[in-house]
Fold:
Amino acid sequence: MSYTYEYPRPALTVDCAVFGIADSSLELLLIERAEPPFAGHWALPGGFVNIDEEIEDAARRELEEETGMRNVFLEQLFTFGGVGRDPRGRVVSVAYYALAKPSDHQLAAATDAARAAWFPLDDLPPLAFDHDSIIDTAVTRLRGKVRYAPIGFELLPRKFTLTQLQGLYETILGTELDKRNFRKKIRSMELLVDTGEIEKDVPRRPARLYRFDRTRYRKLARQGFAFEL
Amino acid sequence: MSYTYEYPRPALTVDCAVFGIADSSLELLLIERAEPPFAGHWALPGGFVNIDEEIEDAARRELEEETGMRNVFLEQLFTFGGVGRDPRGRVVSVAYYALAKPSDHQLAAATDAARAAWFPLDDLPPLAFDHDSIIDTAVTRLRGKVRYAPIGFELLPRKFTLTQLQGLYETILGTELDKRNFRKKIRSMELLVDTGEIEKDVPRRPARLYRFDRTRYRKLARQGFAFEL
Structure:
């Protein structure tokens, strides 16, 4: 089979930058490419969009095929179309990003991927294509977004301590936060509900457990309230 | 000439949502399509990306060809690729958005556009393709972004009053803001410099003139400071 057009067309691909929050380090999911170009190089999971497939479905399918990851909330990041970015010719890639807990997922490489693995964000191997630039864009977006939208709560237990919450933000931002300021800001948003419960079985004074009030957040967001940390 | 590929490929287009700030109303730049599909319908300016052309360059070129607008800062918005969005077959469109002052630009329609005109955002004509959905996404992004990034200052005179600044934000957000709260927030960010000058030739008590301190903003942004309004 072959397909003929009056004008030349770029190929369309997807790439997925999946961040993992593991033990206070921010990690990134990569695959080792089994096929040329860049065979044997590490890269973001991704591949070609089928002609009758929604772009986001393609991202979800490629992520699952190449890494085994399922049930990840992908958000569109940016479309990379630099003229020289792929040695095969013009390839335009719609990039997605997501946050996940590595321990929730069993990795299993297949199809175009020889291996799939988590890498610490500050110690990535050399990458195929322009994937370093996709990753830079994804890190900037993630660190920007975490300051004005309550992303990340789904990576905590349903009931969590303020220390756990601060740890999550510090991991994502890659920086330490001042405890007093952090608590003041979190409290002033009134988005946490005190469950009345405390931690169990900890070798120190147990801390209060909170949950995130998503209903109240949605209501405030509709009123133009800005989450801000 | 014709171009043949082993797998079918979508066509790649760009669309531009250019918002205009005019006399306290938020407007949108549209063109009337001269060619099918949707000939005679209003639509966002846009068109096909050439095979050797950067995507953003294509957006800039199409905007200028169809409307005469130049020197507009386009930011990538989102890529729309819904399978049924174009009657010609699979067409994936990378959408861009921008803010402009209509009075700075002389509109001149050409190529695929019969006319170009500004429309009030709350009174748009029926639109071609899925352009209503592109516009919804652009409005949401613009109104979100204005709260955490100092966009829009370039639409004010270099020296402006706090009333002018508040008017700009009210126009973009489509809502009235409380004057005291607005001034308190603006002052607390310490991003405005009092020029020591006052308005001239106004039929009331002249107000102080300020300028935006972009150097200080860039420095704070590098330190993780969040602009917030």
Notes: The radius of gyration of chain B is 20 Å. The interface with chain A takes residues 1-12, 48-49, 51-55, 76, 78-79, 81-83, 90, 92, 94, 144, 147-148, 173, 175, 224, 226, 228-229 of chain B (CB under 8 Å). The helical segments of chain B are 55-67, 131-148, 162-173, 179-189, 214-222.
